[in-house]
Each structure stands twice: as C-alpha cells, then as structure tokens.
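so my prof wants the structure for this chain in the tokens format not the other one, which i didnt know existed until like an hour ago. anyway here's the sequence
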Amino acid sequence: MSNVVAINAAANEHIAAARQTSDEMLLGKIAKGDRTAMHVLYSRHSVRVYRFVLRMVRDTTVAEDLVSQVFLDVWRTAEQFEGRSQVSTWLLSIARFKALTALRQRKHEDIDQDEVLDIVDEADTPEAALDRATTSEILRACVAKLSPAHREIINLVYYHEKSVEEAGEIIGIPQSTVKTRMFYARKQLAELLRCAGVESLAA
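here's what i got, hopefully its the right format
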C-alpha cells in the first residue's frame, strides 16, 4: 500500500511540475514522448483552440474533431516548433489550416474574403433583438454575420488577444493587410450593432 501511495505522490509531483513549465519547455518534452507534458499542454490550450475553430466552422462536432487533429499534430510534430512565435500562435496556425481545409471539404461556407454575408434580418426590430438576447449574445451574433476574413480578424485580435503581428503570422498575410481588415471589420461590426440597436458598442 505504501508503494502505491509513493507512486501516486510522485505522479502528482510530476504533473504539478509540468503545470508550472512554460509552453516551449512542454513542447520540448512532448518531442521526447512525454505524455504528461502533452496532457498539460492540451489542458492549457484546448478550450482556446476549440473556440477559435468553432467560430470558423460553426459546427460543434467538426470543431471537436479538429481540436483532436490539432493536438495529434502537436504530438507528432512538436520537434518542428522553432520558437519564432508563441506556442499559442503556432497552435492557432495549425487550427486555422485544419478549419479551412474542413470548410473547403464541406463547401457550405464561401471563404471569399471580399463577400459579406447577409446582414440584416428585416423581421427583427431593435427592441425584439434586445428582448431576445443579452448584449454579449447580440455582439456574438453580429460578429458571426461578418465575412469570414473579417470575422477571423475580430476573433484573433479581440477574443484571442493576438497582436497585429501574431494575427498576420497565423493567417499568413502582411501586417498592413491585417490593419486594413481590422479597419473594415470594425466599421462593418459597428453598422451591424447599430442595426441591432446596440449603440453603445457601435460607437
């Protein structure tokens, strides 16, 4: 019995130590086959990756499958991480590629970055919209009505708190393009919020 207690204590210490380890160090351990490090990295980032891909694919089952694929790739390719960006940025780059691949295969969403989806529901009045949902729900709904390219920028910069440089790296576009898309995304979002009757967020 004492051996079991000692083994459990050692395992708990190992997990606790891993949780205090930086993402970069965890990847180094994962590259050497450390399953505990993989578990800790997954626990640390899986929810963020899930929310990121869910906003792109809009399907919970597909999003869950993509998260599994992302972390399977991490397990297989951890040694390829070169440390030129944050680990979270690297993870979202992998996630974005997989989400876009899933969208192309599904062919349900037009990924043309210049086309804006249908925006205004004529049946909705501002009062009805406010009665039906909280301000945060209205905001999420308005973000969902942006074009895929603009939604992606809002998602990365505001929800995932990525810098212009990091957003450009994840998407694979110049920083100047990120800034341009941010400008038009915010302009479009402000108009959507006004249409929804949320003047305070549209300002």
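also thought this was worth mentioning. Residues 73 and 94 are 8 Å apart (CA to CA).
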